[in-house]
Design goal:
The protein is mainly alpha-helical and 56 residues long. It is built from 4 helices and no strands.
Length: 56
Amino acid sequence: MPQAFFHNPKYKKLSTDARYLYMIFTLKMTKSPNNGWVDFDGNMYIIYPDKDLMDV
């Protein structure tokens, strides 16, 4: 988790759930190239259905 979440006043009000969600999405993003989740401009994206996210 980025240290900025703890030290930067900009992120001070970020909830624990939001920080956790950031970690989940970041980990999922590392798998994007292997899963072919890259658009024509080279931007990576993730596919994460709400149900799967709720299970996590």
